Amino acid sequence: xxxxxxxxxxxxxxxxxxxxxxxxxxxxxxxxxxxxxxxxxxxxxxxxxxxxxxxxxxxxxxxxxxxxxxxxxxxxxxxxxxxxxxxxxxxxxxxxxxxxxxxxxxxxxxxxxxxxxxxxxxxxxxxxxxxxxxxxxxxxxxxxxxxxxxxxxxxxxxxxxxxxxxxxxxxxxxxxxxxxx
Length: 181
Prior knowledge:
This protein is α+β, with helices and mostly antiparallel strands. The chain has helices spanning 4-14, 22-34, 37-41, 45-54, 81-89, 161-172; strands at residues 16-17, 61-62, 65-66, 94-95, 101-106, 111-119, 123-128, 131-136, 140-146. It contains 6 helices and 9 strands; from the N terminus they run αβαααββαββββββα. It has a 5-stranded antiparallel beta sheet, with no helix packed on it. Strands 1-4 form a two-stranded antiparallel sheet. A hairpin with a 2-residue loop joins strand 7 (123-128) and strand 8 (131-136). The termini are far apart. The model has no long low-confidence stretch (mean pLDDT 92).
């Protein structure tokens, strides 16, 4: 909008977007070329659900199951392969302000990081994978809010092409499927 003050206010409320690097764009193109509709049709959604439950489900919900640290994926644009791959490869490209990473230094020297959940005049609740910590604001010596995602990059690269296919097929599916046995 060519208005620095307005842009700053919008960023605080809605979040930020940033350009994806050329290296990540190349990876996105490779993954999209590999995971064609024909390839995804051969995906085992039950195996994909198992991968989701072990990795993604720590933070994200899908079909009512999983964590609440990151956005619920059930109603997202997950049926669009471009949307999925771009968000998994570069999770910090578009970050809603509610999911900004916060780094909090306490008077006792500890540094905690996570997503700020609830806040009152006296306390704030910091959420991270598997835990919530209620912090008295008087114990905070420094708080940094970073417009980046808590979601790590390179998650898909940790999986084989078949596991990637199965996970993507599950994420793009229309209903819940059983877990693998």
